[in-house]
Amino acid sequence: MDEITLVPDNLTELLVKVVQFTESRRSVLHQNIHGVHTPGFVPQDLAVFEFVHVLNGAIAEHLQNRRLLLRDTENIKFGPNGTMSLCPVPDEHAETLLPSSHNEYLEYQVNRLLENALNRKVAEELLKLKCGAPSSLTHLHIAQTLVEDGPWKDSSAPRENAE
Fold it and tell me: How far apart are CA 22 and CA 66, in angstroms?
């Protein structure tokens, strides 16, 4: 069953998008750590401020017109049935750190992973309070969120639970 079909209201849909975004971002940041010793590797991140702008616009639209309108941006596209496509962008700050100091680069990536894990955890807890989120959205603990391996992909597709 598609998790989006379980979304009963606009706030819940936005929280689901935050969970999906943070799941995808974790994968991108995880790849940055694995690529630290790869020649020519370009660190990437998701367009966080772009995503925040999309959410702010959707909330403003909801407050004004009682409907949720998620507008596409250069790096974030919304499709049918609640799908969302995210395009990673080069992380210029990480790119400057990588050749000069691997330790600073790795600390930077870990800090971003921790921030991302906190954002995900907050969204998951709000979902639980709001509507009892399906376990497919909340099956990862913070430790798993930080270390889970896997390729970057559109996180809007339902995930298999490996437990």
Answer: 26
Task: Answer left, alpha or beta for residue 150, where phi above 0 means left and psi between -120 and 50 means alpha.
Answer: left
Distance CA 104, CA 73 (A): 31
What token pair was written down for 162? 């490996």
- pTM of the full predicted structure? 0.77
Cβ atoms 27, 153 nearer than 8 A:
yes
CA distance 85 to 49: 16
Segment 48-71, tens digit of pLDDT: 999 999 999 999 998 999 888 999
